[in-house]
Amino acid sequence: MELEISEIMFRILLSFILSTIFGLERQFKKKPVGFGTFTFVATGSCILTIIGLMLAENTNPILIIGPIITGIGFLGAGALIRQERKVYGSTTAASIWGFAALGIAIGAGFIYLGLIFYGFIIIIVLLDTYFEYHSFGPYSKFLTITLTDVNAFNEIKKVLPKNTKVQNFSFDISKNEYTFSFVINARNDELSKIPNKLLSMEKIKSFKME
Fold first, then answer.
1. What is the Cα–Cα distance from 97 to 42, expressed in whole angstroms?
2. Predicted TM-score of the model (pTM)
3. Number of domains, the chain
4. Do residues 121 and 95 make contact, with C-beta atoms less than 8 angstroms apart?
5. Cα separation of 4 and 32, whole Å?
6. Which of 133, 154, 180 is the last residue of a domain?
7. In terms of domains, do 171 and 78 share one?
8. Which residues are paired to 180 by β-bridges?
9. Whole-number pLDDT of residue 75
10. How many other C-beta atoms lie within 10 A of the C-beta of residue 84?
11. How far apart are the first and last CA of the chain?
12. Which CA distances in Å does 159 have to 2, 192, 194?
């Protein structure tokens, strides 16, 4: 397949611009992967697709697309971060794979498919931002508090958001310690106030929010 240089440049530039915009949004939010990775993935996938189309006109498209998607899968897995109860970076990992698909679509000349997919990406990011702000779903916070008096539990509940749920409870009689684990779904501004409220309370030996 022969392509005009202007068409080639248009496809590459479009992949570059769309991926850079998304990547910068991820970078500003201090996500595990920044704009450079998204730009390289989308633009590189676009270029590889164009090269594949130009070198082998009658080649099965799967032979071009398959290796790209497989390789990007390993890159996305590297964006996952596991920290005790949570796995971070799953959205970013999926986004890397998605931008490989975006680059392939644009590189193959399916501009409208790429733009439609990009529109869905924007909607997903907006919803993800909303869920993150409200600590909903995987963005829930886990709070662990160790008390020296079990009767202080009711006082603790009063300073936590209304939809807070007790996840676990344990105690050590020999040390006179009572440990409660909570799952909290609340807005970021509400979450930021919790540590100061707990610090001002007595009978709290320690606490950790993650």
1. 9
2. 0.69
3. 2
4. yes
5. 38
6. 133
7. no
8. 145, 169
9. 66
10. 8
11. 53
12. 67, 12, 7
Rounded CA-CA distance 87/140 in Å is: 12
- Number of residues in the chain: 210
- The per-residue pLDDT for range 148-207, each reduced to its tens digit, is 888 888 888 888 888 888 888 888 877 888 898 888 888 888 888 888 888 888 888 888
Residue 196, domain CATH: 3.30.70.260
Beta bridge mates, 145: 180, 207
* Dihedral Cα 133, 138, 141, 147, nearest 10 deg: 160
Q: Which domain holds residue 127?
A: 5-133
Query: Can you tell me the mean pLDDT for 1-28?
Result: 87
Task: Mark which of 108, 133, 158 sits at the end of a domain.
Answer: 133
Q: How confident is the model at residue 26 (pLDDT cuts 50, 70, 90)?
A: confident
Q: Are 124 and 176 members of one domain?
A: no
Give the integer Cα–Cα distance in Å for 156 and 144. 11
- For residue 104, count other CB atoms closer than 10 A to its CB: 26
β-pairing, 165-172 with 177-184?
A: antiparallel
Taking the CA of residue 54 as centre, how many other CA atoms within 13 Å lie in the half-sphere pointing to its CB? Answer: 14
